[in-house]
Fumarate reductase iron-sulfur subunit
Amino acid sequence: MQVTFKIWRQEGPDYKGAIRDYEVDGLTGDMSFLEALDHLNELLVLKNEKVIAYEYDCREGICGQCGVFINGRAHGPHDNMTTCQLHMRSFKDGDTIVVEPWRASSFPVIKDLIVDRSAFDRIIEQGAYITAKTGTAPEANAIPIPKEVSDNAMDAAACIGCGACVATCKNSSAALFTSAKINHLNQLPQGKAEEHKRVQEMTYQMEIEGFGSCTFTGACEVECPEEISILNIAEMNARNAKAKLFG
Ligand code: FES
């Protein structure tokens, strides 16, 4: 299988970037997308050229490190899938594949396809914790939690923080990410102690990081590898209003 990669190359945050073309042969449909990039980098090493910088860790759809734009879509042509889960069989022999970093002013490019997503870490720092007594763990049934509540909390907790929601949103909004992180704790009894503080401080941090406002286009939900629902955003907004009244 042979493809032409058109890949964003940028030496560093203060350098001008540009798309460069690479014709790559010797690929197979069973290769993951990251393995295809590995193969390209091996060819570049043999030619004594600088390798392409891209990020990954687990290669199993868990860590959220690997996000790139592929042919104009976050994580490539399929809904709800990470870049590392994408295989080359999703493309045809002879295809041209355009690969770019996430595009959002709150995610500045560090190098080539790697962006700085530390804005997410700063949002997390504002409230993704609970107050809990130290000592031995309480008996599991001591705090009954309705199944619907625990299911919703677990669904929100599935967010891997990859940033596809921001990258695909026309407003570069981080509302899906932030709402998932707020709601997975705010719904549970263990998160109640900081309920109002959490939603106010995390949404405030989201705003000062420069992310745009949510206009409910729903694009984030389509591209989210973990299928986080935009209902989380509605709930975050409702909880924020409640916190302002009663917080
Ligand atoms: S490398 Fe971990 S989610 Fe893709």
Summary: The longest strand covers residues 3-9. The radius of gyration is 20 Å. The domain at 118-246 is CATH 1.10.1060.10 (Fumarate Reductase Iron-sulfur Protein; Chain B, domain 2).
